[in-house]
Specification:
The chain has 347 residues and is of the alpha+beta class. It is built from five helices and 18 strands. The model is unreliable at 1-5, 7-28 and 44-104 (pLDDT under 50).
């Protein structure tokens, strides 16, 4: 051990190196101190570790009782804690190769989303522009007969289209087929039509709907606006407003190939005046092969709501189909929005 007198004298030694050598003179003493502090650290950590890990769970204290909780109370308390969803867990816990092969379960996904009190749409999600952009008249425009309809569609979708006008009682007032498209840009084509009507009252609410058809004559896309139909007066055209798509299919994507299973469908929709939302598988002849209803969940940060759905199907040979999602109006009992994608069903 370093003697205290020597160490004291070293404090007054002008040579700093000499003082350091005196302070750590005996190397064996350093080892003793080193081992001593290691032993103290091990004893301290061991004392902080509970002997039984299961007893470290936080228990809910009961009133008027300071005794330790029994096994029955532990079971009761643990039953109130919701376990996380196991949708993505493999069937065999030891086989990690099945993790990426698990198919989404619609019921479990729906429950896990509904239990989330803060359902939000990602801030970086980019809503696509509407396939059918209705420029004139805008939503809730006040029109007299006749009035002009102007809209645009992508140039790549140059197919047949028609414009319809419905009265507030659901009657079809006018329908105009459109076969010619005017070129308005590199990517867009202009649709124009003139609509005429007669009202049963001085004014009534109407529904203006544009339907775009595919090569087989099946609905490819539908967009619509509500109008105020006037018997007399002045026309007041509202602006076209938001040009984003009203109904968006996020999953699956265009050209998706799916084997016989449960087809999971999800996306976003504006829910104003919405009665129902249907998911359908349609063949080239327009026949509905399978159909189901979607579940709609409101979001906290957007005018759009999330929809979820699934369809079970089975085919014996590859089949090209159209996946259609359509929303029906609560007031008019007519389809107001429709989106679709082409996909391939395989055995």
């Amino acid at each position: 051990m370093v003697k205290f007198a020597e160490f004291k004298n070293s404090l007054f030694t002008p040579n700093w190196t000499y003082r350091q050598e005196m302070k750590f003179k005996d190397h064996a003493d350093q080892k003793i101190y080193h081992y001593f502090f290691i032993a103290i650290s091990v004893i301290f950590l061991y004392s902080c570790t509970p002997a039984n890990p299961s007893s470290s769970k936080t228990q809910i204290p009961t009133s008027n009782s300071t005794s330790a909780p029994t096994s029955e109370s532990l079971t009761q308390n643990n039953s109130e804690i919701k376990e996380p969803s196991e949708t993505l867990l493999p069937a065999n816990e030891g086989d990690s190769s099945d993790i990426h092969k698990a198919t989404p379960n619609f019921e479990e996904t729906q429950v896990s989303i509904e239990d989330n009190p803060l359902l939000t749409i990602p801030n970086n999600f980019e809503f696509p522009l509407s396939t059918i952009t209705l420029f004139n008249p805008g939503n809730l425009s006040r029109v007299t007969s006749p009035f002009k309809v102007v809209a645009e569609i992508p140039k790549s979708l140059e197919n047949r289209a028609y414009v319809e006008l419905f009265g507030e009682d659901g009657r079809l007032i006018d329908r105009e087929m459109i076969y010619n498209f005017g070129l308005s840009g590199f990517y867009d084509l202009t649709i124009s039509a003139e609509m005429e009507f007669e009202t049963k009252a001085v004014a009534e609410t109407g529904l203006l709907r544009i339907t775009l058809l595919d090569d087989y004559g099946n609905p490819l896309s539908i967009n619509s606006v509500k109008l105020i139909l006037l018997r007399d007066g002045n026309t007041e055209i509202a602006g076209y407003g938001d040009l984003r798509e009203n109904l968006i299919i996020q999953q699956p994507q265009e050209g998706f190939e799916s084997a016989n299973s449960n087809l999971f469908v999800s996306g976003y929709i504006r829910t104003q005046d919405l009665e129902s939302l249907s998911i359908k598988i349609v063949n080239e002849q327009g026949e509905v092969l399978r159909a189901s209803e979607a579940v709609i969940l409101e979001t906290t940060n957007s005018l759009y709501s999330l929809f979820l759905g699934s369809i079970d199907y089975f085919v014996e040979s590859p089949l090209e189909v159209q996946l259609v999602v359509e929303s029906k109006s609560l007031r008019f009992s007519e389809i107001i929005y429709l989106s679709s994608i082409q996909m391939l069903l395989e055995p």
